[in-house]
Amino acid sequence: MNTAQQARWVRFTPTERIARSMVYIVVVVAVIWSLKTVEVIPEFLYDAPEQTADLLSRMWPFDWGYYPTVVHAAMIETIHIATLGTLLSLVAALPLAFMAARNFTPFPVLNWVAQFIFVTSRSVNSLVWALLFVAIFGPGALAGILAIAFRSIGFVGRLFGEALEEAQKGPIEALNAIGAPGSMVLAKGYWPQAEPAFWSIALLRWDINIRESAVLGLVGAGGIGLALNASLDNLYWDEVGLILAVILLVVMATEIISSKIRARII
Amino acid sequence: MAKTEQIHMSSDRRQPALSIKALRKEYRPGQPVLRNINLDIAEPGITAIIGPSGTGKSTLIRCINRLVNPTAGEIWFDGIDMAGLDRRDLRKARRHIGMVFQEYNLVERLSVIENVLCGRLGYVPAWRAFFRRFPEKDVERAFQLLDSVGLGADFATRRADQLSGGQRQRVGIARALMQEPKLMLADEPTSSLDPKTSVEIMELLSALSTQGAIPVLVNIHNVGLARRFAGRIVGMSEGEVVFDGPPSDITDEDLAKIYGGEGWYS
């Protein structure tokens, strides 16, 4: 063997090359197969632009009179649902996050229990949670608040638990060496380190919850969605247009507010 | 309760503050980091532990306040065997041992004065620490200590992450003194500092040790600093004590025995 041969470099071995080609073929087959399965009806696809234009023309001008009578109060209720739901989830998620953090709670069983609660909370959509709570508590804002809270526990808990696990070990070790009890190590060691993350996660979730609570009314869990559902059922498109515009404005406003505050915290 | 009384009674007797007997530590079974350490620390002043990296200096210091659990042996401090304490009693015993770290281990997002007050976390009731209502005399003492480590009162409200390395280490020393310790441990306190600041920190430790009649056990790899400030040098090599005596007694052969090789120390 001469040195020129030894210096040759190929990125993939023949086996790797065959494997990569197989992956490409599988992807192409999967795309073709799924296109056949969804059965797009071409006629509906062709006149979609026409339908959209028609819908928009029915929406405009908005029925402005509908704002003070119904939309305003419903939108406020939506913001209340999102905010109260977020607060409730923070209270519930905080202890669970400490339970999930492996450095703070060195008991795998407890970590696992907390993770299980997070996964359960996250894997159920807030609309499904809302259906459940509407069945239990009847339609209204309470069902919405609980749906938002239950969906958010997993989100806040998991992210804050991860923030806790990233806490520097040094200060914790120092507080342990001082003879501080566990509650003090939590309050003066873990919390100061993870606090910016906590508020950042809380704001992010509040922002998401404003959007989520806007549709909860579709299943009867209160707020603007209830009004939207009624207008859709009655085909009052000028009302629908107004509601969608109000939701868009509120969502934009919350996003600006929360990102401004977050930038200050970090 | 009975155990605390025992601590107070025994502290009156004239006996070494710290007495390590047949200490052994294995992180992995069969591979001892510390083999058979026997060490009595009686007199105030600095005792320096020197030795090459990886020889177990840090492990030895951390075994004393059980940040690392020893595999076998006894660690008599203030009349009790640290090695045999359960969590509760260990926490109480740790309150009397101050510790200073290479990376300072301050809680970065807390103010300087609050970091110093953390030294009282083993004593104050939880609600006082939670609501930042430390007893008046503790706050007074914290300010005095800041002064005696060479930081003025104007440092008190600065955040720890705004300080330089030397200033942080001074806060770390003040925090340890806040415990009113009967023994101070310092794990490489100057390794992250420049030569001039290193000397200042060692001067400070030495002065505080004499003033407060507190034995200080310093783990240090700078032989020059050890010779200059320690009243006693303990040389370690491969998990064993190979030299123990005043700095004036240490010869080139001793250094060769501790660090291996020759020629580097002349």
Work out the helicity level of chain B: 25-40%
CATH architecture heading of chain A:
Orthogonal Bundle
Instruction: Summarize model confidence as the mean pLDDT of chain A.
Output: 91
* Total of helices of chain B: 10
Largest sheet of chain B: 6 strands, mixed
Over all CA atoms, what is the radius of gyration of chain B?
Answer: 19 Å
Shape of chain B: globular
Can you tell me the CATH topology of chain A?
MetI-like fold
Q: What's the CATH architecture of the largest domain in chain B?
A: 3-Layer(aba) Sandwich
Strand portion of chain A: under 5%
Summarize the helices and strands and which ones pair or pack.
The complex is a heterodimer of chains A (266) and B (266).
Chain A: H1 3-6, H2 14-38, H3 42-46, H4 48-59, H5 66-100, H6 108-123, H7 126-137, H8 141-165, H9 169-178, H10 182-216, H11 224-233, H12 237-265
Helix pairs in contact in A: 4-12, 5-6, 5-8, 5-10, 5-11, 5-12, 6-8, 7-8, 8-10, 9-10, 10-11, 10-12, 11-12
Chain B: H1 2-12, E1 18-28, E2 31-41, E3 45-50, H2 57-64, E4 72-77, E5 80-81, H3 87-94, E6 97-100, H4 112-117, H5 126-130, H6 136-148, H7 165-178, E7 183-187, H8 195-212, E8 215-219, H9 223-229, E9 232-237, E10 240-245, H10 252-259
Parallel strand pairs in B: 3-8, 3-9, 6-7, 7-8
Antiparallel strand pairs in B: 1-2, 1-4, 4-5, 9-10
Helix pairs in contact in B: 6-7, 7-8
Structure in a nutshell:
The complex is a heterodimer of chains A (266) and B (266). Chain A is mainly α and 266 residues long.
